[in-house]
Give the backbone structure.
Amino acid sequence: MPVVFERTRGLTEKEFHFCPGCTHGVIHRLVAEVLEEMNELGNTVGVAPVGCSVLSYQYFNCDMHEAAHGRAPAMATGIKRVLPDRMVFAYQGDGDLASIGTAEIIHAAGRGEKITVIFVNNAIYGMTGGQMAPTTLAGQRTTTSPLGRDPRQVGFPLRVSEMLATIDGAAFIERTSVHDPAHIRKTKKAIRNAFECQKANQGFSMVEILSTCPTNWGMSPLESLDWVKETMMPYYPLGNFRRPEAVTVSGASGGGHA
Amino acid sequence: MARNRGQVSFDIDRCKGCELCTTVCPVDIVSIDTRHINQRGYHPATVSESDMDKCIACGNCAVICPDLVIRVQRVA
């Protein structure tokens, strides 16, 4: 029987430690599938962040390195400059990339480092217990904003993709979501385009992916998907913010091997 | 034109019972098996044998599954 969907070789057999319904698992799979389809698994070095995805080096079936908190783009810069023929990616959450690692991501984009960053935005600090992040929405309740985030006191949520899109070193910037199968398939295409951009030496590439955190949002996994669609997407609009004209990939398939 | 028919299989002990797969099936045959508990202590997702011939092999359940529990084949 022809296989429509099966586990990618880009992931190890290790079971994910993520909470039930957490879409980190979906995003891990998409990155792994893209690397497998581009036949780059043996030629890739990934950089794991600090945060819920800190253990991603156990899951990706390629060479991986662990970075200090927020420093994944700096480490990826070093790896890419020493080994320019490798595919190098950093996988970061919003606490890692938009808070402690703000300087690293902005200057990596500014220098036009030829790395790909997978930025998982779930509007909260997951691993440390659901504290307010720079990406937490106004009014959103977290353990450190129990009455809801008040922008007059703690500022406004950061739109990282829009910020980085103003930088000339950034070649490819896109925001996607994984709240339903159609958007998951679009996210895979965006990840493919970002890696193609790196392969063509076009410059810095990043895909920001709106993700869920059922545990710390205090919702069921299904309610979380609705929350992404109804509450996050109006503030974090999906779309491409920057792409080089030369790189257009239409061949990226949808989910799995479908 | 004959419609596609599919066969889905579940790696039951990887399932965390999050129910995401149950909401994206266009023919509504994926459900949580509340009569069983897997190794992890969750009620796993399943498709009953009687419903399997309704599967159209779209792959949606596998695409949204965060834990790679599901494998989908097309029945020739």
Notes: The two ends of chain B are 14 Å apart (CA to CA). Chain B is about 15% helix and 25% strand.
